[in-house]
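Field reference: sequence -> structure
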Amino acid sequence: LTTGSRFDVMTRAEVDSVLPRVMGFNSLLRSARFPGLIVTERNNGTVCVQAHRAGASLSGGCAMVEVFLDGVRLFHPESVLSNLAPSIIESMRFMDAVEAGVRYAGPRTGNGVLVIETRRGGQR
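Structure field:
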């Protein structure tokens, strides 16, 4: 990790330790306890992941963070994340808007970036 970087990580060992207690990806992400990250289930069955400091609202729209899965930016992460099995997650990393703006480009990097690596992602 780079000195001064502003991101949090959930390792494979941490994922494995909470797997028996999680029901879906949204509960896995909540168990990561990334500071300032709000994970909500929406009425339509999708997942909203937003940073509290990005002006997130618990009752309004979703200021979704940028999401990368195995290095690929997801264009509609709300639907993909709601169907992602927690058991395939290798690691997750959340970067706040400042760090995300330095490392990534995308329409939602100002809300932060969630980087997810799957166990099968490294087997390509």
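Note: Residues 25-32 form the longest helix (8 residues).
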